[in-house]
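Good day; I would like, with your permission, to put a structural problem before you. The record follows directly beneath this note:
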Amino acid sequence: MALRPFLLLLMLATILISQAQGIGSSASDCCLKLSQKSIPKGVVTSYRLQGPESGCLLRAVVFTTKKNRKICASPTDSAVQKMMKYLDKKAKNGKNRKMGHPGGRPKKQRQQRV
């Protein structure tokens, strides 16, 4: 009879430890393999990095497409690094335009009559 509380405590400890290690639901979003195909610039909207710090075993760049599909790529691939720089620049230019800093020519100012 004294064995039941011990088994219950052991089961609870196992569940808590497995969730703390990222074995739970948070690891289900991890890439398990990397794509070898080239990714066209026109279909990718954003990216994020994955690795041990995010609870995943494989280091990868996860691109998100316009159709909300995920593409996993190697972070050491030069084409992937170029795509990341392109997306960073595109995002920066988008923020500047939203903040009133046009990328092109300045707006015409109305002349005031004196």
About this structure: Helices lie at 3-20, 78-98. The CA atoms of residues 90 and 98 lie 13 Å apart. The first helix runs from residue 3 to 20.
